[in-house]
Specification:
The protein is mainly alpha-helical and 164 residues long. 79% of the residues lie in helices and 0% in strands. It has a domain of 108 residues.
């Protein structure tokens, strides 16, 4: 029987969660994973809020610009369109929100890189990576899935005593 990657990634978190009485992480590596995962969750919420604010500020300006400049536009009109839109965004706070969104997104990616690079030393630490992989499958790949999978497999092999 062939099992798809999706099926495996969706069932690993449940299987790890079913391990009875997971010990509290004593190893520094697992604490780094848990702290990074908590920070990633905060950043994920923040980026959602900032993205909604960007959309709220962006679309009325784009609709107004479309009404003023029409579509399609020649190259000269496109330059005027972009200058008008940039001035509008400078006055409505869009640039500040967009910059905050990009900074949050950069930290979000860096946090995922930290999680992928940090070895899990207990099943609880491996569960952090498995939960993120589950989100990757559910919500769409953020280009971190490959590193998370590779890292999780190495962690699970180590936790299983080197079995492959």
């Amino acid at each position: 029987m062939t099992v798809s990657r999706r099926t495996i990634l969706l069932t690993v978190p449940a299987a790890l969660a079913a391990v009875p009485a997971l010990p509290k992480p004593a190893a520094a590596g697992d604490q780094v994973l848990l702290d990074a995962y908590a920070r990633w969750q905060d950043l994920d919420r923040q980026s959602g809020v900032l993205d909604e604010e960007c959309q709220r500020l962006c679309w009325p300006a784009h609709e107004a610009a479309e009404a003023l400049f029409g579509f399609p536009r020649d190259a000269e009109t496109q330059v005027r369109y972009m200058a008008w839109l940039d001035a509008r965004h400078a006055s409505d706070g869009y640039h500040q929100v967009y910059d905050a969104f990009n900074a949050t997104l950069d930290e979000w990616h860096a946090t995922l890189d930290t999680i992928a690079a940090t070895p899990a030393t207990t099943p609880r630490g491996a569960l952090v990576k498995a939960e993120l992989l589950q989100l990757e499958v559910r919500d769409g790949d953020s280009d971190h899935a490959g590193r998370l999978i590779d890292s999780l497999v190495v962690d699970l092999q180590r936790l299983a005593g080197g079995a492959s």
